[in-house]
Amino acid sequence: MATPKLTHALPTLDPEIVARTTVHAVTHHLERLAMPLSPAYRVSARLTDPMHSALTTDIAQTVQQLTRYAQRGDLGDWADALDVRTAVQDVIAALYSAPVHCAQDGDGEDLDVDEIKLDTRSAIGVVLIATLTRLKIGVGEPVTARDLGALAGLSAVSVRALARAGELEIANAEIAADEARRWLSARGGAWRA
Description:
Elements: H1 15-34, H2 58-72, H3 81-96, H4 99-105, H5 123-138, H6 145-152, H7 156-164, H8 177-186
């Protein structure tokens, strides 16, 4: 039986492609939010200067760095895990926030990362899940098969099958941080929180 794999396996993701796709998703999201305001208001999410590209935007730079962090644990120019968590929050706010969040929370920055149902059907979903998983393991929090799978480039089904085969231990649908760290290290990658 073939092992189910993620459509967007983290190790194979190109940070620039993930960034371009995310910029497109954010501009599309912005245009959908603005549609009910027409014709009184016109909102356009187009490049203002042809000398710039989507990759020069703040969100593209952030997504590229998040992808590298998810893949290798590389902090880049971030000081610590708090900076990484803030970057995840910013990307999630751009992709998933709605006007109701801004009206309730003032500026929309209080959107709870755990409220958002991230999934592995998109490259940015894999990057965000893997980044949050790396952060959780780093502080000793347990993770799920889906979370660990995203970080390892596998599906949740594959992770559970590996657990049944005795390669890692899952208890109460969770994998302890130490167990996840051990398993990731044994897979040949240098584990870095």
